[in-house]
Amino acid sequence: MKLARYFTAGAGLLSLGLISLNVYASSEHEQLRDKLRSIDTLQAAFAQQVFDERGELQEELEGQLTLKRPHFLRWETEFPDESVMVADGDSVWYYNAFVEQLSIFDQAQDLEQNPMLVLLSDNDDAWASFSVSRDDDLWVIEESNPGYAQVSLAIGFGDNDQLQSLRVDDGQGQVSVFTLSDVVLNQPVNDVSFSIDVDDHVEIDDQRGS
């Protein structure tokens, strides 16, 4: 799973610098937020395709996604590239089975920096740090004042405004496309789904408060 490029400190989405901006919410902002507000919980399978800077397919993966507003998210890929990312409201936990390492980050800091996590939020300050635009049928979220790399998240909706696809561009040439299937909306999800257990021998890299 290539989520490490988006959910670990110093790289990908979690490395975006937070810049506080007082901007007037565009109509695209409000339209997208209205669509997302209709989602209390979402459970789905996904197929992931990873493309390089030439647009050539590099890898295909499958997994499961569970989210529960306002701040719970579980993203898990299956064998042979097993990884788990969990946001539990306090921390973001990322486990890479291949290297047997668990990395932990402070969610309160990362929420306003990360387009993937901002999907869960109704916080105006968090959304003010990002611009929202349209690209055909996609809604594109980008950092309003990017650094050296313009990381973006594009969201696609299907019939009845059902979340259908996600596209993450790391700003350095790699694009990951996630196509959702077997989507279940607004059904009860136990909070235990947003916990993670690892074996005692797993290396822990706790970056909270650092």
CATH architecture field: Clam
Shape: globular
Taking pLDDT < 50 over at least 5 consecutive residues as the criterion, the unreliable ranges are 1-25
- The oligomeric state is single chain
Q: What is the highest CATH level, the class?
A: Mainly Beta
Largest sheet strand order: 7-8-9-10-11-1-2-3-4-5-6-12
Report the helical percentage.
10-25%
Tally of discrete structural domains: 1
CATH superfamily: Lipoprotein localisation LolA/LolB/LppX
The succession of helices and strands, N to C, reads: HHEEEEEEHHHEEEEEE
Please report the number of helical segments: 5
What is the average per-residue confidence, as pLDDT, rounded to a whole number?
80
Tell me the distance between the termini.
26 Å
Largest sheet: 12 strands, mixed
Q: Decide which structural class fits the backbone.
A: mainly beta
Radius of gyration: 16 Å
DSSP strand tally: 12
What's the CATH topology label? Answer: outer membrane lipoprotein receptor (LolB), chain A
